[in-house]
Amino acid sequence: MSGCDQDPKAQAILRNLRQMAEDLGIELIAEGVETETEEETLLTLGIYSQQGFLRAKPMTQEEFIADHFFSKILRRYVMREGSTISSKPGAIHPSSKSISSLRPRHHVGEDRGV
Q1: How far is CA 7 from CA 10, 45, 76, 91, in A?
Q2: What does the DSSP assignment read for 25-78?
Q3: β-pair type (49-51, 29-31)
Q4: What is the pLDDT along the chain (114 residues), one digit of tens a residue?
Q5: 51 and 111 in contact (C-beta within 8 Å)?
Q6: 16 and 1 in a common domain
Q7: Does residue 114 belong to any structural domain of this protein?
């Protein structure tokens, strides 16, 4: 998806791919989304399932599972306690690098290979 935010021809192709996938009942997932402007361009084109470095670095199955369960536990705690989550790295757990991935997003899993 690199550069799709600046290339009208790429956007035309993506627009038509989205329509074709919709007509065929196939889920379209944009891979390689690296910037917020690429994300916004894809959203404008109606492509909501996205993955790439903008969301997360590639991770092993073990890292994915640990991140997934930590996120579930944290969400339950926040809902139960009525706490707020700081967006500062390490604000919740000293070993966490960032909790920005805990915000609900409009994309399918970060790594389809897991």
Answers
A1: 5, 13, 42, 39
A2: T---EEE---SHHHHHHHHHTT--EEESTTT-----HHHHHHHHHHHHHHHHHH
A3: parallel
A4: 677 888 899 999 999 999 999 999 999 999 999 999 999 999 999 999 998 888 778 888 888 888 888 888 877 777 776 655 554 444 444 444 444 443 444 444 444 444
A5: yes
A6: yes
A7: no
Residues 40 and 83 in one domain: no
Q: Are residues 37 and 69 in the same domain?
A: no
107 phi, psi to nearest 5 deg? -150, 160
Whether the CB-CB separation of 111 and 59 falls below 8 Å is answered with yes
Task: Mark whether 49 and 70 lie in a shared domain.
Answer: no
